[in-house]
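#struct-pred

JT: dropping the chains for the assembly here, can someone run the whole complex?
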Amino acid sequence: FDTSPQAIRLYLLYNHWALKVLLYVFILVNLGLAIFEEPAVFPLPTWATMLLELLCVFVFTFRIVHYAKVIPRDKFWKDPKNICIIVILLLTLVDMIIYGALRAANCSIIRWSRVLRPLLLVNVTEGRQLRRAFRSIRNALPQIFNVFLLFMFSLLMFSLMALKLLGKRNLKTIEGLPYFNNYLEIVFDLYVLVTTANSPDVMMPAYNSHSMFTLFFIVYILINTYIFMSVFLAVVYNNYKKYLKEEVRQLVRAKRHKMARAFAVLQEQKEDGGQPMVTQANWNQLVRQVRPDISNGHRELLWHVCDDKNHGFIGKGAFVQLADLLNIEVITLKSRPHPLQSLFPKIYQSAPSRLLCRMVQHRAFVIAFDLIILVNAVFIGLDEENPLISNSEWVFLTLYVLEILLKLYVFEPKAFFSRYSFWNWFDTLIVVTALIATIINSALKSLVRYTSRQILDIVFILRVLRLLRVVDGFKRFRAIINTLIRIGPAILTFGQLIIVVFYIFAMVGMELFKHKVKFYEDSNDPAKAYCGNPLLNNTAFAQLNYCKNNFNNVVSSFILLVELTVVNQWHVLSSGFATVTHVSARIFFVIFHILVVIIIVNIFVAFVLEAFFVEYSMDKNDLQTSLEKKIKELE
Amino acid sequence: FDTSPQAIRLYLLYNHWALKVLLYVFILVNLGLAIFEEPAVFPLPTWATMLLELLCVFVFTFRIVHYAKVIPRDKFWKDPKNICIIVILLLTLVDMIIYGALRAANCSIIRWSRVLRPLLLVNVTEGRQLRRAFRSIRNALPQIFNVFLLFMFSLLMFSLMALKLLGKRNLKTIEGLPYFNNYLEIVFDLYVLVTTANSPDVMMPAYNSHSMFTLFFIVYILINTYIFMSVFLAVVYNNYKKYLKEEVRQLVRAKRHKMARAFAVLQEQKEDGGQPMVTQANWNQLVRQVRPDISNGHRELLWHVCDDKNHGFIGKGAFVQLADLLNIEVITLKSRPHPLQSLFPKIYQSAPSRLLCRMVQHRAFVIAFDLIILVNAVFIGLDEENPLISNSEWVFLTLYVLEILLKLYVFEPKAFFSRYSFWNWFDTLIVVTALIATIINSALKSLVRYTSRQILDIVFILRVLRLLRVVDGFKRFRAIINTLIRIGPAILTFGQLIIVVFYIFAMVGMELFKHKVKFYEDSNDPAKAYCGNPLLNNTAFAQLNYCKNNFNNVVSSFILLVELTVVNQWHVLSSGFATVTHVSARIFFVIFHILVVIIIVNIFVAFVLEAFFVEYSMDKNDLQTSLEKKIKELE
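RK: done, full complex below.
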């Protein structure tokens, strides 16, 4: 690692937040190009999107070159993620050239490099969490594969049995087609049954012919839907936990190693030839540089935790803890005086003012406002065309604003809006936004005599969200809600994972199925009944009016993929697309189901489970307790 | 506890296996009465079923009186399960009298006491496992209830939002009905959406009007289907595990207490005033009485584990372990000589016989038969009308029988059919049954020129099951399959739980909905199109041909309840029954969903998960390892 001033400046520049934000903006732009490219939501000319993409590629190239300058050369080339980025950028360029050339020659061509775009999100240096998630999945694959093979074996066996039992009985499905007499069709139908999407319809012809046949289906569902799907969850959960643990262990080891090296730099030998140690002065200087935002009192506290025998120096063991200590958040709850008290001490300390404070802090105040919220809920449910109801909204808004103002009068504003008061933030945000939106809405209404539907929708949503606050009043819900709020940040990583996978499937799906199924806004168009594709005439897909579930642009592709993730009716959707192309199109949907529903959704479930198990068996770690002990001692 | 010889004889009689079996037979008869009672699968006259039920009640009364004689009086009356049984028996008698009287007066009346029948299964002394499962559920209820309240709050809030956002837009569902303009309907629709059963249909009208509305549904599904349902699983899993652990801990404590009392009875004081102890002679006598089936060698081994310093006596600590020691199964794998060897030593030891043994034990033998199975699978898939194919069955059967005979020639039969060789048992059973069934089938065919469909079905199933054996060949599957086999016994407890709950719902459902929906075998009957109830005309229920999903007898009720457990289309089924009775009938189906799908199915999933987690982190307990150490030492 080069330690010349120039190299360090370059390193600091590389890690500057503005450059990181810029990188993410360009990744978003790059991904967002799908909205404007053919098949587009908002079509732009090809040269415009190509130019934008070229700019993105240029920015990414610049960033990777910068990274190469910062990192030692051999380390750079050993890291697969850098090679991955370079290959992606090169492939993108090649694809753009081919596409541009063929486009100029008026040939139609597939933009295959779009599939690679989300991989950039995974491979940039900042995507650590996301890479970790992908690595966990990759590591879990062999075990998942074993279970999957066994599951497939069971599926094939049951299909064979179904063919033998039901194939020769001349049964008919509800559409009048022959029932269970083609092996591959049976395999597909029984695979769908595992997802429960065609239960009980797939069973009905057999059931109508004899009740005993239901036994076959019940055993099948028990083994494949309940047992095998639970085994998948168990395997995914177990592996995800195991590899995550392993990763965390490696991280901890790396951190300890680095801290030991820092200690070696800072250590001094004591005169009597004892252990090497770090003095308080050095330590203070270090902490001040690493975390300039920490207050003196807080730093003092941390030092006392490390040096709990008051030697004035600490050994290696205590020093290594520093990084963890800095990560523990100590909420400095100074009982600061209210700013009004310092401004108008007389008035703020007067008897009516104190009475007001006592009133607001009283339990009855909270209950009164919970009741107001409930009354509000009933009013929202009623018809807002009634002038009494619509005017009552102003009363409620006034009450809510009054509540916030009163609380601000009583509680110190900085404490009220501290980072940890989720509900205060939530409440104020909702009420203020609702106030502004309502004012705009009624201003528009009285001035232009026109009610904007969009603003009204926002007002409605805000009104209902306001009611959420009532939940905070119940202690029994608080543990659950706090766990859910704590899951929040990790869901972001998960959201990225989902977006990467969905984006790839959306790109492939758009190339395969674009414009095969059309949606007609005009309900009188006769083509609406078969989604503009005569092949769909009389299929379940058209009859259920699923025309808008198509791959004609990136937004509807994403919505369709969400519907496929929810699973229900996925066989109707997949059969629809198989009808307009080829029966092998089902493979696309089955692969999506295996990847997203069996693996990724299970990871999500495992993740929520884990968060709750941790919550239930919450043990604070050693450092946190020793910090708390110190705080108690010092009090 | 009375220790007179007479009381002990009574106690032993109470615990006699024949009486226990008799009790279970009568419980089964009592439950099975539902098949013959109105509405019946096979109708019997009322006096016959009443007489049978009276007999059952008499047997149960006798059993509980016997139990009261065995157990001290105060203990008997303190135990809620005894009081429960007495109350159930009295209520049953009262109901029978009322029913009999009103029946004689030709009034129609509800047999409400049938709901209580499965509770007998829970409350008999032998239903310990089942009672434990119910207790775990009851203990988990408060926490589940908290999450459920929060979930309901979220559901009501989202419904309010949906009403405000979509209610006034004059959208129409695919049936042309107004969309989302009735609050209670919205609540039901969104509850169904949580189960994913009406996705994406419930979303389509909003989606067709504007793509942005899908955001509402996506957020809803994310929060309610994915997060809340996972939280339910987490809560159920966590509580079930916690209370099960607590129960096990109490059991262990009780066992230790009882063993300590047994030690107090058997102890002798050593001459030099040391610790009290039990001599080997006393110990031997005890073990021989408790477990007469244990061999001398095995007993000797156990003694050496307890008395590992060869004192000739053991202290309290070692004595208390006895119960656990007796529970560990030691497989006595004596390398017994093959019986043929003792009968015909010359022939069995001859060169060709030895070559045969080596061949059968060779890896190639297994692979050869795996290949034969695969070829067999292909032949099964082909059309069995072809004489070549149908005759090939005889070849395969001969090959399989030959395989088993060869194995029996090589391996010692008792070892081959030991309790732990699951696959040997499975294999032999399947092949022998298939042989018999095939012979009967072809005998019938050649003699009477008539092929029984039932026997042919059995033959088909057996043929396919034979293929299962191939799985055992792969090492990677063995861990998974062994875990699944180990789950087996516990699934029995779970099956009882399911039967109890389903039986209660079936009884209630039959009283509420019997004969409202009819199934017509004759496809030409015009009433078939609306299930014999004009109210169902043009409903999804009738259009999907769900007429056989009804509560007209106990078998179809159970099948319907299974379909409801699988969830898909449950809203169509519930709406069908709501149409023929009253909209409040939906409550029955929602309660079933909450109880069975949210609680019981989650317990099942938790249960499979736990089995796999235990498998993955398998640690043998101390006793088992000390036993293994001893076996190693003695070798």
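JT: nice. The beta strands of chain B are 268-269, 276-279, 313-314. Residues 213-266 of chain B form the longest helix (54 residues).
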